[in-house]
Design a protein that fits this description.
By secondary structure, the protein is an alpha/beta fold. It has 10 helices and 10 strands. The strands form 2 sheets. Strands 1-2-3-4-5-7-10 form a 7-stranded mixed sheet, with helices on both faces. Strands 6-8-9 form a 3-stranded mixed sheet.
Length: 267
C-alpha cells in the first residue's frame, strides 16, 4: 500500500465519515468510536458523498472504522419521537405516504450501493461489532478482512423490521438462502471462524494485524492491470444472473476486448 492516505489531508470529513485519497487508494473511515460508529441519515449522506467524490485515479477503496467496533448499527435515537436534529424521526416517516417512504429509503441505500462499482474494488476492514446497518455496510464491499474479535449480526428482524440497506442480496449470494434466513431471523452473532468458513469474510487475523493484512491484499490487487481487474469483476458479478451459455459468451467477449487492448487494437 502507498503512504498513509491521512497524511494527505481529508477530501471529506463530516458526520462521522472521513475520506482520504492517496493516488490509487481511497480510505473511508467511520470516525465516531465514542458511539461505536452508530449510523444515522447524516452519516449515510456523507458515505454517499464520499462515493461521488472519488477521483478517477482510485482503484481500491478501503472501508475501516476507528475504535473497538466497526459499527453498532443504526443509532437508536432514530426511533425516538424527536429523532435527530434537523431530520424526520422514523416515526414521522412511518406516518408519511408510501411514495415518500420509498424515496427516503432509496436515499439511505445510496450510501451502500456504490462500493460495488465496476471501476473500483472495495475492501472492508472489520473489527469488533458489525451489527445491523454495520453488517450491511461491510456486506456492501467486494471483500472483507476481519479481526478475530469480529461479531456480525443482523438484528433488524428481531426489532420488528427487515434489513433494507442492500444487505440481503450479498448475504444470500455469499452464504445461501437457508443460512441467510437463519442469521437474519435469529439475530445471532457470527464470529470470525464461521464468517470465513461461510464466505462472509475472505480472511480473519488477530486485531493487531488487521491493517497489515488489508495492506497486503490491496497491494496484491494493485499489482494486477487495472483494466483486467475491472473486466474480471464485471464478469464475476454478471455470473450471478447469467446461465452457463450466457456466461461463456460473456467470457469470450471480455477476453476479446482484453486481447485487442493488449495488441493495441482497442477502440
Amino acid at each position: 500500500m502507498a503512504s498513509p492516505a491521512h497524511d494527505l489531508g481529508p477530501v471529506l470529513d463530516r458526520d462521522g465519515v472521513r475520506l482520504t485519497v492517496d493516488d490509487a487508494i481511497a480510505t473511508v473511515t467511520l470516525t465516531n468510536p465514542a458511539k461505536r460508529n452508530a449510523q444515522s441519515p447524516a452519516l449515510w449522506r456523507a458515505l454517499a458523498e464520499a462515493g461521488r467524490l472519488l477521483p478517477g485515479s482510485v482503484r481500491v477503496v478501503v472501508l475501516r472504522a476507528e475504535g473497538r467496533s466497526f459499527s453498532a448499527g443504526l443509532d437508536r435515537q432514530a426511533f425516538t419521537p424527536e429523532g435527530f436534529d434537523g431530520e424526520p424521526s422514523f416515526i414521522d416517516l412511518a406516518r408519511g405516504g408510501d411514495a415518500e417512504l420509498d424515496a427516503t429509503i432509496t436515499e439511505y441505500q445510496e450510501a451502500f450501493t456504490w462500493w460495488r462499482r465496476s471501476d473500483i474494488l472495495s475492501v472492508a476492514a472489520v473489527q469488533g461489532h458489525a451489527i445491523g446497518a454495520g453488517f450491511q455496510l461491510a456486506l456492501a464491499c467486494d471483500l472483507r478482512v476481519v479481526a478475530e474479535d469480529v461479531q456480525f449480526a443482523m438484528r433488524e428482524t428481531s426489532l420488528g423490521l427487515v434489513p433494507d440497506l442492500t444487505g440481503t442480496h450479498p448475504l444470500v449470494s455469499l452464504v445461501g438462502y437457508a443460512r441467510a434466513l437463519e442469521i437474519c431471523v435469529t439475530g445471532r452473532f457470527v464470529a470470525a471462524e464461521e464468517a470465513v468458513d461461510a464466505g462472509l469474510a475472505n480472511l480473519a487475523v488477530p486485531a493487531d494485524q488487521l491493517d497489515g493484512a488489508v495492506r497486503d491484499l490491496v497491494s496484491a490487487v494493485l499489482a494486477a492491470p487495472r483494466d483486467a481487474v475491472i473486466e474480471t469483476k464485471a464478469l464475476l458479478q454478471g455470473a450471478q444472473h447469467r446461465d452457463y451459455e450466457s456466461q461463456r459468451a460473456a467470457e469470450r467477449a471480455a477476453q476479446a476486448r482484453r486481447l485487442r487492448d493488449l495488441a493495441g487494437l482497442g477502440e
